[in-house]
Amino acid sequence: MVRVTVKWNKQVFEDVELTLNGPVTAFKETLQGLTGVPMARQKLMCKGGWKGLLKDDADLSGSGITDGKEIKLMGTAEVIAAPTVAATFVEDLSAAEQAAAGQVLPAGFVNLGNTCYMNSTLQCLKAVPELRASLRAVDSGEGAGAGQSTTFAKALARTFETMDVATEAVPPTAFVSVLRAAEPQFAERNQRGYMQQDAQELFGAVYRHVTAASADVADQFGIEVEEEMKNTEDDAEAATTRSDKLNMLVCNIQGGTGNSIKIDHLHEGLKLGMEAEVEKFSEGLQRNAVYKKSLSLKKLPKYLCVQFMRFFWKATPNSRDHPNGVKCKIMRPVSFPEVLDVFPFCASDLQERMKVYRDVEDDGILDGGAAAAEEKKEGEAEAGGEEMEVVDDELKAAMAMSMPPVDAGPGLPDDFKGNYELFGVVTHKGREADAGHYIGWVRQEGDQWLVFDDDHVEEVNTEAILNLKGGGDWHMAYLAFYRARD
Fold first, then answer.
1. What is the arithmetic mean of pLDDT over 330-340?
2. Which of 265, 267, 328, 437 is catalytic?
3. The domain spanning residue 428 has which CATH number?
4. What is the rounded distance in angstroms from the CA atom of residue 470 to the CA atom of residue 415?
5. 475 flagged as catalytic
6. Residue at which a domain ends, from 167, 189, 219
7. CA separation for the pair 13, 182 (Å, rounded)
8. Phi, psi of 473 (to 5 degrees)
9. pLDDT tens string 420-446
């Protein structure tokens, strides 16, 4: 296998994988995913690689093509037409049309050699409509200056579009090629082939590249936090604060024999992850001192990713096989809710704003209280409803004027109360951190979910999802995806 440079019009794609002893059609399929040029329209030329246009039955094993070789692609990309609404019966639709209409189970991804970490995570991200829209809106740009992140985002957009109409499992060949070129760690190999990778690191890589290509994505997933450092040994030293941005929250997991802290639920692990003690030099004491570090949420995203910190590095200085240590997995069960309330983790000014609406909801003032509904006379239902709407609007306006001048975050309603609904989970099965298997679980409607085990897809319910808390050899949650709940 070699990595070549492909020039198409004014765009340049670097580090595209080409298997010299494989079929030419496999390379063309990769290019179709990158550029949108159908395989039948592709005309490939390579000075010193082959004569004229590359034929589908050509043998490249003896071509002498090496890493960095430039290949020129000619052809027009196919524009994906917007779906049209037709009055027809489901049985009259083609398999692809049924898939697009949601009449059959969505397709999974083919595992291309330990790519389950990627397959499972992408299935969850595919369920975010705002992300899909941002990817479609990414400008292709011109020339090499368009950037690797733009290429990354466009490849991901095309992968999702292919999945929308697929009736059979899709091999994400083009996106894997772009991913491994942009992030070499995902191209690591051992004697058995490509190595297993971490789903959280894959999410981080996707986030970095798509936010570089589209600033909108940072608003969809980015979390603004405030970090406070307080010297626990010197009350005279003023606390310091600084702002930071995260793309996920972390649930720290502790427990077991001899550990005084037992983490059994997600909110406990989140609290532990947002408070820590660190040792650093104190100017006032002129020595190292213990500081308490506290995080609070300043701005919230519409979509929230939570990582369960199940993997950790354990030092093994006396081991011959692993003198530098080993990566271990924490099997302890940690439950997580269907609706996550982040109010306790928010900064005080944001809590003050959300508390107004939370208190109003508890009292039943907005949207009509229960007592008021019972007192409404049958003949006054319509008029009373209009009056209640006016009162609601006036009350909301009055509260908005009296609240702190902060907002919960981009894309969130003014009356957001801090509740998030679970819609996606990436699980890991197995006792080894660098092995095992990842699976994606994605909510459809109500109590219905789909489980994506690479190319195998089946239906489950919410009860099955909430059982993914760990504690044994069953699938256990590693990443949880929540969306803001109105």
1. 95
2. 437
3. 3.90.70.10
4. 35
5. no
6. 219
7. 11
8. -90, 5
9. 999 999 999 998 877 899 999 999 999
